[in-house]
Design goal:
Length: 230
């Protein structure tokens, strides 16, 4: 898989944990998850399968040091596995060609030669490795459905002018998508992430929920009773 990878980033000095990665590792994971998202779009994947691929990737490297395996190979296997989990199956050939074009813009699709089959076998073998490391726990509850519910509820809560003049919904979805560049998706509950990105979107535009000052509880606790946001 060296032919499909970018330059080695093997400067990390600690194994990742549940509280986040050291900065060098975080930069690697940011770049690789960006690859997953862009490849997912080119492969025609919907948002949930792409989110599952990112979650599989992050969860794998919460267990394994990033130096142990090529992160881009793991990412390609995560895409392949996520397609199966979310019932949007992908062909390994399509994943390989999209990845090859990502690393070598303008290149032609790979011929079905020995190099292609080596890459294809690497993806399949890596998929089995990922499944073993994650103990076959590759189904995830994503924040998307919660955020959709919260946005619909908040839209009816806010006055129409505040909602129409600020792109709260667009910003919240963008923040949720960007959150998958890091390991938040495997460190926090889905509904907490949904509330957090919505809270941040409101703060960005200075929008306050009506009667928030007089309420007995903060508005976000109406959605998730155990959520605490500083």
């Amino acid at each position: 898989m060296e032919d499909l990878s970018l330059d080695s980033c093997g400067e990390e000095d600690a194994a990742p944990g549940t509280k986040g990665w050291p900065a060098p590792q975080a930069r690697v994971h940011f770049r690789v998850t960006r690859f997953i998202m862009e490849a997912g779009v080119k492969l025609g994947m919907q948002s949930i399968p792409v989110a599952t691929a990112c979650a599989i990737y992050h969860k794998f490297f919460c267990e394994i040091n990033v130096d142990a395996y090529d992160p881009y190979l793991v990412a390609m296997s995560a895409l392949y596995l996520a397609g199966k989990v979310e019932e949007q199956p992908l062909r390994t050939r399509d994943i390989i060609n999209v990845s090859n074009r990502y690393f070598h813009p303008g290149s032609e699709p790979l011929e079905l030669d020995s190099r292609f089959w080596v890459i294809r076998d690497s993806i399949v073998q890596c998929e089995l490795l990922v499944l073993r490391v994650l103990r076959f726990q590759v189904s995830f509850q994503h924040p998307h459905k919660y955020l959709l519910h919260y946005l619909i509820s908040l839209k009816n809560w806010l006055n129409r002018y505040s909602w129409q003049r600020t792109p709260i919904s667009v910003t919240a979805w963008a923040l949720l998508r960007d959150s998958y560049h890091g390991g938040l998706c495997v460190r926090f509950q889905a509904q907490h992430i949904a509330v957090a990105v919505l809270h941040l979107a409101l703060q960005v535009y200075g929008v306050q929920v009506p009667a928030e000052a007089e309420a007995e509880k903060p508005w976000w606790q109406i959605y998730t009773m155990d959520t605490e946001i500083p």
